């Protein structure tokens, strides 16, 4: 029907003026698991095990876990955290 065509018309045209944004490599939300593990190892001077903190998560996923779960992961695999 004509009403259906009016509904679909904007979808068919698409967004032609959209800009592509380049993700910021310094933002942890854009890191994959390898980058996150590397950062954990470097920032903790080897005191926090990346295997216990982020076994498979990306940066975006680790930022969304609850604080209590994050702290449990830090202390679980590392009974004596450096600097404590």
Care to describe what's here?
The chain has 5 helices and no strands. The chain has helices spanning 2-13, 33-43, 50-53, 59-64, 67-76. Helices cover 51% and strands 0% of the residues. The mean pLDDT is 83. It has 84 residues and is mostly helical.
Which characteristics define this entry?
elongated, mainly alpha, 84 residues
Topology:
Blueprint lengths: L1 H12 L19 H11 L6 H4 L5 H6 L2 H10 L8
Mean pLDDT across every amino acid position: 83
What is the strand tally? Answer: 0
Helix content: 40-55%
Distance between the termini: 71 Å
Question: How would you concisely characterize the structure shown here?
Answer:
This protein has helices spanning 2-13, 33-43, 50-53, 59-64, 67-76. With 84 residues, the protein is mainly α. It is elongated, with a radius of gyration of 21 Å.
């Amino acid at each position: 029907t004509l009403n259906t065509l009016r509904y679909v018309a904007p979808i068919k045209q698409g967004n032609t003026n959209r800009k592509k944004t380049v993700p910021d490599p310094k933002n942890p939300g854009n890191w994959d698991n390898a980058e996150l593990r590397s950062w954990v190892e470097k920032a903790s001077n080897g005191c926090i095990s990346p295997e216990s903190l982020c076994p498979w998560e990306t940066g975006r996923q680790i930022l969304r876990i609850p604080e209590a779960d994050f702290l449990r992961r830090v202390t679980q695999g590392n009974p004596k955290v450096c600097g404590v």
